[in-house]
Every structure is written in structure tokens, then in C-alpha cells.
Amino acid sequence: MAQQSILGRITQLARANINALIDSAEDPEKMLDQMIRDYTGSISEAEDAVAQSIGNLRMMEADQKEAEEAAGDWGTKAAAASAKADVLRAAGSTAEADRFENLTRVALKRQIDFEGQARDLGASIEQQAAVVDKLKTGLNAMTGKLEELKTKRDELVARAKMADAQTKVHDALKGIDINDPTSEIGRFEDKIRREEAKVAGQAELDASSLDAQFESLDDVAEDAEVEARLAALKKPGGSA
């Protein structure tokens, strides 16, 4: 019964439609991780079941061989006892001949019993061998399914990472002016040009102020010359 139960679980797991399970799962990656753990545990149980089944099969095969050998031995003994009975009967030893005939009957009965055991074991061995084959086939199918699960899990993880990266890029692009991607640079350039113009204006203003100062010095010099000549005219005998 335990073997049939394990075999049923193996068959059910091996037939699982992974894609359908993924489609119906809220969190496919988490579901696959759990399935991988379940499959790994089930495979371990299946391996134990297969090993036990093979052990039982080999034990039954050994018992059958022993029963066949015992049947052969009792057949040999029966033949020897029957031959001895014939010799004794021919020699006139009727009582001894009857005793060996009885021994022959006992040996033949034992032979028949062991032959029956061998036949019964043969039927059990056939059934057990079929179970072992099914368990081995199921185990191989589960191992293949486990590899499929791992591949699907790795594929989903890679796709999830790619989708996350694409989402981040998309979110970053949303912050850029799609119509004029250089608008921020243009505004920064305008700001720099205004600063440059301001500096140029300030320099021009400073230059103008300096020229005015020098012009004012020229006026002072000219006034001084006028005053000097005026003073000269006022002196007796002076001339301009």
C-alpha cells in the first residue's frame, strides 16, 4: 500500500502542468520555489521507496531460488528413497521397503510444497518488478520535472529583473521633456548668457566712469591754466 501511495503521488506530481500553475499563481516565483522544495522532498521519498522496493524484489528472488533449490533437493531425496524401497522389496524386506516408500512420500510432499512456494513467489516477483519499473519511471519523470521547474524559476527571475530595470528606465524618461529634451540645457545656457551680458555691462559701466574721471581731471587742468593766465594779466606789465 505504501508503494502504491508513493506511486500515486509521483504520478500526480510528474503530470503537473507547470505553465497552468504559473498562470494561476499570485506570486509565480514564490510558488515555484515552494514546488521545487516539494518536488525535492518527494524525490527523496521516492528514492527511498524505490530502494526499498528493489530490496524487497531481490529478497523475494533469493527466497524463490532457495525454494527451487529445496524442491530440487527433496526431489533427489524422494528418488533415492524410492530406489532404496525397490531394492529392499526385491530382496524380500517388505517392512523396510514400506518405510522407505513412506520416506519417499514425505520427500515428494516437501518437494511439492517448495515448488508451490516458488510459484507463489514468482507471481509476487512479477508484481513487485512491475511496481519497481513504475517507480523508476516516475522517479525519472519527477527528476526531469524538477529540472523544468528550476529552469522556469530562473527564467521568471531573469524576466522579473529585466521588467524592473525597464520600469526604472521608463520612470526616469518620464521626467524628461519629450518635446524638447534640450530645454533644460537651453535654459541653463540662457542663464549663462545673461550673466555674461551683465558682466560685460558692468565692465562697460566701469570704463565709462573711469573716462569721466579722467575728463574731469582735464577740466581741472584747463581751469588751472585759465587762472594762471588771468593772474599773469593782472600783474603790472603783464601780458597774456
Overview of this protein structure:
It is a single chain. The protein is mainly alpha-helical. It has 2 domains: 2-174, Helix Hairpins, CATH 1.10.287; 186-240. 90% of the residues lie in helices and 0% in strands. The chain has 5 helices and no strands. It has helices at residues 2-14, 18-24, 28-90, 94-174, 183-234. Helix 1 (2-14) packs parallel to helix 4 (94-174). The longest helix has 81 residues, at 94-174. It is rod-shaped. The mean pLDDT is 79.
Reconstruct the topology from this structure:
Layout: H1 2-14, H2 18-24, H3 28-90, H4 94-174, H5 183-234
Quick take:
This protein has 240 residues and is mostly helical.
Looking at this protein, list some descriptive labels:
single chain; 240 residues; mainly alpha; Helix Hairpins; 2 domains; rod-shaped
Q: Which quaternary structure do these chains form?
A: single chain
Mean pLDDT: 79
Structural class, from secondary structure content?
Answer: mainly alpha
CATH-defined architecture of the largest domain: Orthogonal Bundle
How many structural domains in the coordinates? 2
- Proportion of residues in extended strands: under 5%
Silhouette:
rod-shaped
Write down the secondary-structure element order. HHHHH
User: What Rg, in angstroms, do the CA atoms define?
Assistant: 57 Å
Number of helices: 5
Unreliable parts = none
Percent of residues in helices? over 70%
Tell me, what is the CATH class of the largest domain? Mainly Alpha
Largest beta-sheet details: none
Could you tell me how far the N terminus lies from the C terminus, measured between alpha carbons in angstroms? Answer: 147 Å
Q: Give a count of the beta strands, DSSP E runs of length 2 or more.
A: 0
CATH fold descriptor of the largest domain: Helix Hairpins
